[in-house]
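Work Package 4 report. The design task specified in the project plan requires that, given a folded chain encoded as structure tokens, an amino acid be chosen for each position. We show below one input record used in the internal validation round.
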């Protein structure tokens, strides 16, 4: 009898251990190499018509979506910089004027880049907008985010390290099929710097490729290492030059001094964007801004607190292993104290989701170097699996660390559907399944309103 009871206890212990173990997916993606789409691919085609506006994209023009910044490029001449907008294509009675910029990068000169902020928008309303007057007019639409509130539902797409390969196209197609209202993009856009002389024509092709989504819903930009475009050998020493000319952010509305770190409030989420490749040591502008921004978060109005950055703090892949460690050491305690719900990162070209762990107790004396379970800690999601030319990061560390819940070397995208102040549903979709197939999912509970153990 005693022996049977002991065997039963041992069996139960094995089951519990198995239930708590993380999953390294055995799924293996296709064997073909990742390749950029050819320059004559349909998705890169410029719109017809003389000086037709192209590369149209939008992002929030203020912190809550009552302003929207529209950007586009005209290839032949500056043209008319006016954007007309309104509640229907026939009644676009409002208008705004764009600013104009261009830049040179080695032997490349950009087209005429326009940025125009549409103001006096109402929350949760569909607007139509058009530009290109005088030559070729193009018309688009978007719906503004709902007014921030504690129980306002909203669905985000989560994409990172996209590039412009055939896999990238699959990622965008899958995201469009799954649907979302805005994209949280965690850095590394065009991968133009992978080409000789940082061929900036690949910035143009990338922007035409993603126009089908980003012209109709806001994408929120995080700067990654492939946005640096630093190459002193060809005389290019201005950091982020193509990115800053092409992709504005609402940083001034967030009280930031630079476009690389800022915040927005969408529905029931307060979203903080950080820059892994800008200074973040003590008393630097980013450090000072984040110390103040966390104090401005109102969890009673926007209960979900989400942080975006590029280089992950927790990563069990040998690719880019521990590259985010100095930033983690600087800021992790702040995020745990603030009860951040989710930290999204890219950089590593695979997928990984963590449990709620932290490593805030370690110092060089106490030796407590192992992350420990912490219900105040965020879930870390590495979503740098958009499909870029550099390929899949398929060299996970062994054994799988306890903080990691699920990991897989595949391309894909994720969605985060906030239901109310307490619950959000998260899904990850690999490209090589049908669009609606979920490869990883979890119900998340809010750290402020319902800090239960949602790790499994």
């Amino acid at each position: 009898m005693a022996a049977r009871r002991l065997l039963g206890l041992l069996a139960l212990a094995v089951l519990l251990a198995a239930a708590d173990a993380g999953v390294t997916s055995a799924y293996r993606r296709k064997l073909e190499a990742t390749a950029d789409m050819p320059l004559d691919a349909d998705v890169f085609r410029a719109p017809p018509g003389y000086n037709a506006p192209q590369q149209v994209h939008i992002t929030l023009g203020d912190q809550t979506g009552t302003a929207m910044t529209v950007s586009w490029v005209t290839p032949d001449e500056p043209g008319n910089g006016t954007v007309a907008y309104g509640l229907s294509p026939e009644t676009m009675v409002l208008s705004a004027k764009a600013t104009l910029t261009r830049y040179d990068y080695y032997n490349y000169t950009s087209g005429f880049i326009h940025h125009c902020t549409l103001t006096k928008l109402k929350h949760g309303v569909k607007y139509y907008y058009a530009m290109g007057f005088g030559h070729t007019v193009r018309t688009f639409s978007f719906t503004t985010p709902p007014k921030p509130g504690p129980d306002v539902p909203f669905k985000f797409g989560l994409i990172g390290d996209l590039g412009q390969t055939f896999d990238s196209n699959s990622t965008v197609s899958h995201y469009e099929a799954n649907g979302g209202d805005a994209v949280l993009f965690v850095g590394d856009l065009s991968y133009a710097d992978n080409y000789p002389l940082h061929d900036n024509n690949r910035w143009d092709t990338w922007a035409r490729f993603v126009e089908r989504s980003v012209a109709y819903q806001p994408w929120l930009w995080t700067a990654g290492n492939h946005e640096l475009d630093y190459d002193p050998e060809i005389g290019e020493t201005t950091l982020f030059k193509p990115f800053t000319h092409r992709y504005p952010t609402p940083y001034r509305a967030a009280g930031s001094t630079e476009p690389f770190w800022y915040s927005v409030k969408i529905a029931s989420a307060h979203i903080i964007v950080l820059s892994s490749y800008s200074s973040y040591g003590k008393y630097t502008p980013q450090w000072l801004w984040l110390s103040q921004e966390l104090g401005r978060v109102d969890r009673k109005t926007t209960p979900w607190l989400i942080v975006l950055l590029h280089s992950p703090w927790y990563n069990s892949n040998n690719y880019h292993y521990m590259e985010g460690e100095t930033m983690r050491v600087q800021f992790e305690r702040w995020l745990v104290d603030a009860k951040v719900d989710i930290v999204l990162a890219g950089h590593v070209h695979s997928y990984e989701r963590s449990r709620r762990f932290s490593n805030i107790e370690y110092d060089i004396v106490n030796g407590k170097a192992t992350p420990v379970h912490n219900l105040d800690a965020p879930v870390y999601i590495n979503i740098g699996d958009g499909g870029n030319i550099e390929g899949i990061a398929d060299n996970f560390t062994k054994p799988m660390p306890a903080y990691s819940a699920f990991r897989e070397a595949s391309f894909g995208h994720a969605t985060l559907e906030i239901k109310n102040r307490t619950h959000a549903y998260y899904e990850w979709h690999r490209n090589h399944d049908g669009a609606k197939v979920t490869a990883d999912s979890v119900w998340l509970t809010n750290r402020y309103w319902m800090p239960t153990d949602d790790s499994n």
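Residues 352 and 407 are 4 Å apart (CA to CA). Validation will be extended to a larger panel in the next phase.
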